[in-house]
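Lab meeting prep.
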Amino acid sequence: MLHLSAAVDQTSAYDAASYVALARLAERGGLDFVTLDDTFARPGPDALGVLSRVAPATRRIGLVPTVTTTHTEPFHVQAAVATLDWVSRGRAGWRIDVSATEGEARLFGRRPAAPAEALWQEAGEVADVAARLWDSWEDDAEIRDVPSGRFIDRDKLHHVDFQGTSFSVRGPSIVPRPPQGHPVRVVDATDGPARRTAARYADVALVRAASPAQAAAVRHELRAAAAEFGRRPDELRVLAGLLVDLGDGERAAEPGHGGGGPRQTVQGPVYRGGPVDLAELIATWHGEGVVDGFHLTPAEPLRDLERLVNGTVALLQHRGLFRTFYPGSTLREHLGLARPANQYAVPGGAS
């Protein structure tokens, strides 16, 4: 199954309507999910807040904000992501990221910047404790028994008692278990320090690769590492990240693009050409089994997303390479991922 996603980032856009329009356009093309970047390093709207507004205006597409795990409270992070899953009825994910600069650290004043390895270790611990907190409510913990006045079955709430390298969390969560059990975890695994965290915790790993061979090597490395962590490697979706500039008309891909692969730039791999050659690139890479799909960032959000949906995606659908409708209602269903069992409710789980 080919998976496609797109970024809906916009420079200096603060009105919700523009993000709603882009998400609806991506949904019309049947894309698995959209992402919205966020960082403490520059001004911009809160991605979680924006996509919580987009949620009731869309029906099927997954919503994945970037969530920074450095300088933030893990308990509050998991509650916010769980809330997005509830308001979207099971379509939430979160793109886990870290803050590495002194400037970002000074915004909070709690601690200095740390090395990337330490930040990504902490990010993995946040992913771990988030899953435990989501499981701290069993699915049937809410009983809402009016005659007895009991809202929850306290025997089905669990303390997580988690101790990390820089934080501890007792739990349970203040938000009931999300519809997906665990909202989908996305990690950009291009850089080395993030790769271990992606292999251990991510459902979707994003990689910036400029050739099929490079993409295949990273995918193999990630899946091998996932197996070492006791995971099933085929449950990790690896998507190639690509900045796409589709221009204003149909044209052949520029040299270095097309089926031979994108061009490496300081921004990462960039494709400049028409929707037809982009469809060929996607079909070739996926057909060779080097990636599970693509995460596409439009150079000009509205123009390139329209050309992507109406041109590239339509062609892939016509060739039977991409779905024409959503097979389910949750992001996990779009990605072909099972809903995780509750670790506190199954035999042998944590207590």
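Slide two material, second protein:
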Amino acid sequence: MRNVLIVTLFLCSALLWQPLQTATAAPPSELQIVVSVGPNADFLSTLSIRQKNGLAQIILRSPIGPASPPPEPVRATVSIGSRTFLYGYDGRLYDQNRHAAVHLPNDAAAELDRYVNRLEQVHFGKPLDWSEVRRMFKRMGYATVIDLETGKQFRVQRRAGSRHADVQPLTKEDTRIMKEIYQGKWSWKRRAILVKVNGTYLAASMHGMPHGAGAIRGNQFPGHFCIHFTGSSTHRRKEPDPSHSLMILKASGKLPETVMAASPYQLVDYFLTSLHEHDLQTLRMTTDGFALPPFLQEIDNVKRTEEIQTGDTADILAVEIPVRLEYVNSEGKKKEGRWVFHLCRTAPWTPWKITDICADE
């Protein structure tokens, strides 16, 4: 079941908010914009716009270009009646029925972008720094955690933590929902979440492993778990944890643009982090769509064992990056080796993509 937030906009009227369980097909005069954290997410936010001779009709009347591939990643989905369009981060509107880009007038393109921006502000969280968050989400304070993939939510209390928030589910029902988010098994894997504190939705990241001490009786949670915000860190390191940082970017809606602007060396790090977290959506963002080699499909966790040697890539279109690392496969066997990443881009101003990975062990 999908969790959907519907925002209906009537021309020259106020915004009307309606929480719905499922999205309905838009009539030809109505335009629906849908935003989510990824194509497989069940948690959606929808903006419905009803205008006579408005943006929906302009889109339907606009000329279509030659056949082209769809935008990747997709920023938003636009529906008009039975027609579906994909909106990319490059501002391109793609007609899924005709497999081609729609050439919108400049004013209409700017209007569509404003609507998508407005919906993203509703759907994603604010990436406030931990120094500010800790004053909002004080010790013994309460918050609601919303998982951005499933839309499932539960209540927590912050009990401790100086570098991040150490929290516990309030009740056994909250614990049940949290464990359900992790498919019934506790895990150290990070997830992108929203944390609602006093009506403000914050971009954050959590893991799903009870540890340490717990003090809320009856919640059936053996310990506490950690929630990280922008600039927070683990108990062991002063620097932000890369996996939590990636999920915070995801929760703020900034991950696709960050990945698209990354250097090839940063892109390799994003790949390794998303592989470590089993985040298939982010893995797809970093590659050109090639199928992962079998040895990568069996990775349970992975980390670099040395810094990546960087260089000037301002004017080149292809680069090869060797990375030495250690990893654990699905059978629990620890291994070390060197992987060689091949990356390309079509022009100096286009995003880098990983095109191949070879194991040199």
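Talking points for slide two:
The longest helix spans residues 106-123.
The chain is about 20% helix and 35% strand.
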